[in-house]
Give the backbone structure.
Amino acid sequence: MHSFNVGQTYFPVKPSHTVPARSGSSATNGKAFRDYLTESVEKAKRSQEITFSQHALNRLNERGISLDETKMDRLAGGVKKAADKGARESLIMMDNVAFVVSIQNRKVITAVDDGRMKDSVFTNIDSAVFV
C-alpha cells in the first residue's frame, strides 16, 4: 500500500484492483499472445481465400484448366478489385478463361474457356474485371 501526503496528513492509497503477475508472455488462460496473433492472421487469410463450387471444379477439370499459385494470386487480385468497387457477382477474365465469381462469398461459381465462350451469355453479374 502506498500513501501520499497533503500537508501533514497522510492518506493511504489502495489499488482498486490487482493485476496478476505475468509469467513470460502467457495470458491468464495460458495462451500466448503469439498464439492469438497467429490464429488471427490465419483466420484473416482463410477469409481472403478463394473457394470453388463443385460445379466450377467440374468445369475446370473437364476443360483441363489448371491454376497454379501465380494464377490464383491474379484471380484473388481480380476479386479484390471487384470487392473494392462494391461488386457482388463478377465476371473475371484471365488468360482466355472467364470465371464467374461470387465476390461476397469469394467463391468461383463457374469457369468457361475460350473454346466454349463463343455465343455464351453471362447473366446475373454486375461487373467485369480483366486480369
